[in-house]
Amino acid sequence: MAVLIRRSCGYSKVDKEDPEEITHRRAQFLIYKVLEQANTRRKPSFLRIRLCRLKVKIGRRLKKLRKSAVVCISAARIGVYKQVIDQLKTWRRLFNRGCGGGTIAATLPRPLLN
Predict the structure, then answer these.
(1) Is-contact 97 107, C-beta < 8 A?
(2) Residue 112 near residue 88, CB atoms below 8 Å
């Protein structure tokens, strides 16, 4: 009688599972959960579709606005650069005339970078 009680409560030793089997079982479980969620989904409401379309429209407008802002900023940067270069040229002409001695070479503007 004691032998029967021991055998009923005894646990058999379980071999360690293969790591590939574990990942396969986990993948099967995830697939099952996704399929279950897909079956329980209801038809999207009219309001939800309208909101999604509105979000897409707003996103497109923001993207267009961002592109135009980048173009404007780069154009402004080029304009400022040209103004600075022109101002440097005029200063260079002014300072070169004072110490040039009146020759033609002294009155011609020199290149910015030698």
Answers:
(1) yes
(2) yes
